[in-house]
């Protein structure tokens, strides 16, 4: 299983970051191998994954652990796909965001391709995309939060 981690600090309060991350279906904007996310029922989503070698749908559970400001997801069935986005306040205007992703290759072919041509740190790319998503969302939010 491949696991990667990346951390950044965003110039937004923890409550604002958590507010935008509660929109689980928007996560495809910052998770690069996720084409779409569809809500199916309480804490259940259908993730459409596309790693460039195969496209598949995986039923996932996504939970917000309120006590430690952590979003955690894992597969219900199929290949192992897991992750967390953990938030921690730096001060009243900045939040540390740590993204951890773990997955098994979808097939022998994609596993071999990953070994031969590693794509760098997907978590680092995704955390940069997450930063941009959060800042863009906050800039476009006219509710004053």
Brief account:
The protein has 145 residues and is α+β, with helices and mostly antiparallel strands.
Fold and architecture overview:
The chain has one domain: Alpha-D-Glucose-1,6-Bisphosphate, Chain A, domain 4. The protein is an alpha+beta fold and 145 residues long. The protein starts with a strand and ends in a 5-residue tail after the last helix. Helices cover 25% and strands 43% of the residues. The protein contains three helices and seven strands. Strand 2 and strand 3 form a beta hairpin.
Supply the CATH architecture: 2-Layer Sandwich
Indicate the radius of gyration in whole angstroms.
Answer: 15 Å
CATH level-four homologous superfamily name: START domain
**Mind summarizing the main beta sheet?**
7 strands, antiparallel
Principal-axes geometry comes out as: globular
Counting structural domains, the number is 1
Separation, N- and C-terminal Cα atoms: 39 Å
Proportion of helical residues: 10-25%
Query: What's the multimeric state?
Result: single chain
Look at the structure and give the mean pLDDT. Answer: 88
Q: What is the CATH class designation?
A: Alpha Beta
Secondary-structure-based class equals alpha+beta
Order of helices and strands: EHEEEEEEHH
| DSSP summary: helix tally | 3
Low-confidence runs (pLDDT<50, min 5 residues)? 107-113
Q: DSSP strand (E) fraction?
A: 35-45%
Please tally the β strands and state the result: 7
CATH topology: Alpha-D-Glucose-1,6-Bisphosphate, Chain A, domain 4
Strand order of the largest sheet: 1-7-6-5-4-3-2
